[in-house]
Amino acid sequence: MNQSASSSLPPDADSFATLSPDTVLDALDAVGLYGDGRLLALNSYENRVYQVGMEEGPPVVAKFYRPLRWSDEQILEEHAFSQQLADAEVPVVPALALEGGCTLQRHAGFRFAVFRRHGGRAPELDAPDTLEWMGRFIGRIHAVGAQQPFLHRPALDIATFGEEPRDWLLANDFIPMDVLSAYKSTVEHALDGVRRCFDRAGDLKTLRLHGDCHVGNVLWTDTGPHFVDFDDSRSGPAVQDLWMLLSGERPDMVRQLADLLAGYESFCEFEPRELYLIEALRTLRLIHYCAWLARRWSDPAFPVAFPWFNTQRYWQDRILELREQIALMDEPPLWPV
Question: Which listed residue (157, 212, 231, 259) is catalytic?
Fold first, then answer.
């Protein structure tokens, strides 16, 4: 059974400032994984993720969790879900059980997990066969996800992805004064539109989701997709794991959705009323993303990677973006419900 190590996280451990290459290698040494000195930082901003060469055997991937973001119980619930999927032969990459049978380890105040390395490329989503294949595997993820609820991980809803991020941005003075009034008005109208979409959809069942199912979290090989990075796994409506794979003009998205659902419904029934939520969920993601960047702005990696954030132009563009979403949320769903 998964369980966490016993030592507690220091209350002031709110950054990666002390996570050096030596710390990474020492952490792996402590759980019996002996690196050969090769360390490659992988593309991750929320956490710190490294491919580490081993003295014996293939490289592994070590993921050091951002301090104070998730509780131990929430991380372990993510690990348990991934392992359930792997046990059901869904192509995911679960955390390895290491010292003491634990998947979550600690070293020098950091929590970390280790994964087998899986290569692959981004899927070609303009191919109908690829979309249908993706739909099948998302359907399989959801069939397992529906078997039991999360007890510790939060839900994806209007409060957590819309209202709370908005309130945090306003309370922490991230919006420039000359656009503050326009932003407050626009984001409130946008959230009203989100609420109307959820009202139209009615009561929908929620289930355990991947939560961040975009092409960057799918590795494609000749044998099909591998789903990685369940770090944002939450409870929510099934369409959350589908809409981020849609792009282009409305006719393009209609075709793409048909291909996805052709595979998805081989394993899981899709409730058509969830189509009312596509643009609402996109709107919530836009609001949440702004607050995510703002909350991480003290991390030195963020100003380097996102130099355009928190400029005057940035917030003006976000206001225009939300106004476009307000109009889109009042359009009919991609096909009749």
Answer: 212
